[in-house]
Amino acid sequence: MRNGLAPGYNAPLTTASTAGYVAFRDNRPLHWMCALGALAIGLSAYHPERVFDFFLENATASAFMITLALTYRRLPLSHLSYALLLGYLCLHEWGAHFKYSDVPLGEWMKPWLHTQRNNYDRVVHFAFGFLLCYPFQEMFTRAVGVRGRWRYILPLETILALSAIYEMLEAFMASILSPERAEEFVGMQGDIWDSQKDMFDAGLGAVVGLVLLLATRSILARARLRFQPASATEVLIQSAAVVAETVPAEREES
Which residues contact 117 (CB under 8 A, 6 or more apart)? Predict the structure, then answer.
């Protein structure tokens, strides 16, 4: 460690295995990501389709971002985790601006999926599991010391639990609003199994993301074993083996 900077600080993109504590004022990649996140929120907040719905949609996202800020000194995440969180935030803010049932991307998907329903909310729920499984895995690994298969089980369970909590909060807000406003806010679009499908999509996204993580780590581990230079001890052992095979052959020739 030099000048209080964590190992891997100079890396262009730190991961869970290379990240360490860096004072926020020195963490320039995070500065850029915060600026992009603020820009996404600002653009989303500019004349949203429904102002009240916009603030409701951003209540949980705001609480999560505040939690990340307050816990930064204790558990700063890697640049990769923050980048994935930024990607999800951008997707969410687009939905909050237009109202999830009216997002243009979902309208474009209708003929492609042969449906009359705007499925952009399904995309974001899948992205919630797919993009956030790595940050949650990093939190469990670095803060709690989780190892082995639990590195993959706990992030999946967390994604499913948070999805269920969100759906319950959404249902609670719907019970307060008028029936018409509740339908618009929840975004069921006539699907009585909307909540269950949203949770399934989030879980599916997490499974896909965790499987890709496991496969990537396996490939990298094999590559390291294949190209890792031999240690001094291994070189001596190999040299001794070569000498042991060569000496008897020379004696036989003489």
Answer: 110, 189, 190, 191
Listed in sequence order, the DSSP H helices in 2-141 are 28-45, 51-70, 79-98, 104-113, 120-139
Q: What is the C-alpha separation between 141 and 148, in angstroms, rounded?
A: 10
Element (H, E) at 99: none
The 10 Å Cβ neighbour count of residue 194 is: 18
> What letter does residue 119 receive in the DSSP assignment?
T
Question: In which residue are the tokens 């969180």 written?
Answer: 85
Q: Do the Cβ atoms of 124 and 92 come closer than 8 Å? A: yes
What six digits make up the tokens of 213? Answer: 């993580």
**pTM summary value:** 0.79
Mean pLDDT on 224-240: 60
Residue spans per domain, the chain: 24-253
The three-point CA angle 12-123-152 to 5° equals: 60
- State yes or no: pLDDT of 193 exceeds 60: yes
